[in-house]
Design a protein that fits this description.
This protein has 280 residues and is α/β, with parallel strands linked by helices. It has helices at 12-22, 48-56, 89-95, 100-111, 117-126, 134-142, 150-159, 172-182, 210-223, 241-245, 257-262, 273-279, and strands at 2-6, 31-34, 37-40, 60-64, 75-78, 163-171, 186-195, 198-204, 231-235, 249-253, 265-267. It has twelve helices and eleven strands. The strands form two sheets. A seven-stranded mixed beta sheet has the order 8-7-6-5-9-10-11, sandwiched between helices. Strands 2-3-1-4 form a four-stranded antiparallel beta sheet, sandwiched between helices. The radius of gyration is 20 Å and the shape is elongated.
Length: 280
């Protein structure tokens, strides 16, 4: 495996100290992968002192399996809210009508794994009953932004023949927009019921929860004729854990503690371009 360290704070002295801490073989040196990404090959085991030092210095650190590379992957599956984009869309809809504290509290509880996602979504959507559907477009026009490095990551996937899929417990109104913005291959999300131009406070059809995310990943993987070791999944909340568990690598992106504990790798300081660094 290889040690990959990333972060805008990395200096030569950091790399020299990490080289010493790692006990790297003589002649092995860090290779620069990108502006703020470096890799040290031929690591036999993870070193806790390296991990601790990186945490103290706010450097992303990962011991990456040599089989986990862009050239080996065939499908990348990603969450949307707070992963590909910087907001939680439902929280922003609520904010426009003075409901954000109530909705955000439920969102946070669900992302920490304290409430079943489907139940949390029903509670949050119910609070939006009666709102004009124009609020959805306002969120896109005024608040929706891609997270740093999102386009860089998707471009790298495309260059390496990796199909890209967004699976979201959010809403298709936003998922379809993000799909178009980034040029993704697939998108799956929930549908809000709208009657006479107003939200009814209900979700149409089967809710895209944690199990549904995993099921969409598996179905798309099988449709493409890929194996589990050709799929990478990226997310930030507890409802992403099941889809991450059926991929060969699950990446926690600026994620809740429960997700970081169970993910294969975690990125806390760099943007989504850090995925390119991990898997180069």
């Amino acid at each position: 495996m290889r040690l990959v360290v990333q972060g805008s704070a990395i200096s030569f002295s950091h790399l020299a100290h990490l080289h010493q801490l790692s006990g790297a073989q003589q002649g092995l040196q860090f290779t620069q992968l990108a502006e703020h990404a470096y890799s040290l090959p031929r690591q036999t085991e993870a070193q806790q002192n390296v991990i601790d030092f990186c945490r103290e210095q706010q450097i992303d650190c990962a011991y990456v399996d040599d089989k986990h590379t862009l050239k080996r992957f065939g499908l990348a599956v990603m969450d949307m809210d707070s992963t590909l984009i910087s907001i939680e869309c439902i929280d922003e809809i609520a904010d426009m009508y003075g409901l954000k504290p109530q909705v955000a509290a439920i969102t946070e509880s669900a992302m920490r794994g304290e409430i079943e996602f489907a139940e949390s979504l029903r509670r949050r959507v119910a609070l939006l009953e009666g709102l004009e559907d124009s609020a959805l477009q306002r969120v896109i026009d005024e608040r929706l932004q891609l997270n740093p490095g999102a386009q860089t990551w998707i471009d790298a996937c495309r260059e390496n023949g990796i199909r890209t899929m967004l699976v979201s417990g959010g809403f298709d109104f936003f998922a379809d927009k993000v799909k178009a913005m980034l040029g993704l291959d697939y998108a799956q999300a929930n549908s809000l019921e709208i009657v006479n131009g107003k939200l009814t406070g209900k979700v149409l059809g089967h809710i895209v929860d944690a199990q549904a995310k995993a099921d969409f990943l598996i179905a798309t993987r099988d449709k493409l004729g890929l194996s589990a070791d050709q799929v990478v999944a990226i997310g930030d909340g507890a409802n992403d854990l099941k889809m991450m568990s059926v991929a060969t690598a699950g990446v926690a992106y600026h994620a809740k503690p429960i997700v970081q504990q169970q993910a294969t790798y975690a990125l806390n300081h760099v943007g989504l371009e850090g995925l390119v660094g991990l898997f180069s």
